[in-house]
Amino acid sequence: MASHSRNIDIDMDKDNNSYNKNNKNDILVTPWEVHGDLEDKNYVKLIEKFGTQSISQEIIEKIKKLTGEVHPLIKSQYFFSHRDLDWILNKYEKGEPFYLYTGRGPSGFIHIGHILPWLFTKYLQDKFGSKLLFQITDDEKFLYNVGITKETISNYTYENLLDIIAIGFNPKLTKIIIDTKHINHLYPIATEIARKITFSTAKAVFGFTNTTNIGMIGFPPIQAAPCFLPSIIEKVPTPVLIPAAIDQDPYWRVTRDIAEKLGFYKPAQIHSKFLPSLSRLYKMSSSKPETAILTIDEPEIVEKKVLSAFTGGQPTISLQRKLGANADICPVYWYLKYFFDDEKESFERYIKCKSGNLLCGECKSDLANHTRDFVIEFKAKREKAKDKVEEYMFD
Ligand code: TYM
Question: What's the pLDDT score for residue 24?
């Protein structure tokens, strides 16, 4: 664990930005680590602790009105929380377009958990015609992980770029920013931001300690900068919506605090839950490749990983037939639900599982087939991405 991480939750009191000690049973979420049970009740607690909002029926109706539909990841509450989503939709309705902003810290290969918010971001781009800034924080990952070399980060940056481009973002509307390459665009804004954030706030929000290296302490304004870059590019205050998992929220909290002081809109967010690892015990992470499905995995490896996944099943077939299994704690069920099953299929699978009419082997086999096909198709897109890198780069 890096020295600046502490075993406390980012639990910023809405009024005074202070931490509280993390309750043992709660989920621990920082931009660099996530621990605890990824259960729905813990996500509800996160909304309270982070001071975000759940996505109300009113917002869902507004989305439906503007786009004609509601994305399955919103319906299934995978995207479960937000800040100012209603505000940004109202602005859009009145004719003020918004930018999308999301990113990646290139510390390893891409897994299917990363892919979900990016697929959703592409969907938003297509639906709202939004321009997108995609930041690659190669500096963050170098500073955070004291054991990693610049060469390794640079290799992951290139590999991750292929995944990002393979998502299929509109090249005319999308620009990728690599921090160490495009720092000249970020630095002027980052210094404005940095001047407004005290060390005391940074400690409270990120858990920095006396042993944190000063590069990490100085980093947050670099991730905040793309929130304001659209206003500078467009030469008019421009709303920005950030789709990401909720682990990135601490960055947006400090950014929102100082936005208006600098003459910018507060960035809005839509937060997702975490895709769990194949063992269910923690979020999927490329630092634990044995329990993650990576986009560079060979199809037979994907199949092997899926077949050895944890499930909510009973110890024996006869018990499962008799008692049913527990889809609520089953990563296999969740992957099928979020990636491959439609609403009806997922509902039917749930009922059959609970009533003992479905065995885990059948779900695993469905998931293995879907995931293998997905990875094969995605690999082909990654290959094609090799010729498109320059097209997507920030100028
Ligand atoms: P990183 O590389 O840790 O994660 C990239 C994106 O994937 C999300 N994510 C997950 N989502 C679901 N399930 C998981 N298991 C999972 N693991 C990661 C993250 O929330 C993120 O959306 N500092 C950032 C890079 C960054 C960024 C941004 C991210 C820079 N600017 C703006 C989001 C928005 C990072 O290291 O992300």
Answer: 60
Query: Which is more confident, 36 or 75?
Result: 75
Reading phi first (left if > 0) and then psi (alpha if -120 to 50, else beta), residue 207 is in left
For 11-58, give the secondary structure using H, E and C: CCCCCCCCCCCCCCCCCEECCCCEECCCCHHHHHHHHHHHCCEECCHH
d(CA 320, CA 275): 25
How far is the C-alpha of 120 from the C-alpha of 38, rounded, in Å? 21
Ligand 1, from 115, 136, 247, 286: best to mutate by most atoms within 8 Å of Cβ? 247
Residue 330 included in any domain: yes
**Calpha distance 198→205 (Å, rounded):** 11
Mean pLDDT of 101-122: 97
Q: Is residue 132 part of a domain?
A: yes
Look at 95-99, 175-179, 280-284 and tell me which has the smallest mean pLDDT: 280-284
What integer pLDDT is reported at residue 25 of this predicted model? 65
Q: What is the CATH number of the domain that holds 312?
A: 1.10.240.10
Task: Based on the fold, state whether residues 211 and 329 are members of the same structural domain.
Answer: no
Q: Which residue has the higher pLDDT, 34 or 51?
A: 51
| Ligand 1 lined by 247 (C-beta under 6 Å) | yes
Q: What is the CATH number of the domain that holds 66?
A: 3.40.50.620
- Ligand 1 binding pocket includes 271 (Cβ within 6 Å): no
Distance 356 CA to ligand 1 centre (A): 37
* 3 part of a folded domain: no
pTM above 0.85, yes or no: yes
Would residue 282 count as lying in a domain?
Answer: no
For ligand 1, is residue 314 a contact (CB within 6 Å)?
no
Pocket flag, ligand 1, residue 137 (CB < 6 Å): yes
Tell me, yes or no, whether 80 and 130 share the same domain: yes
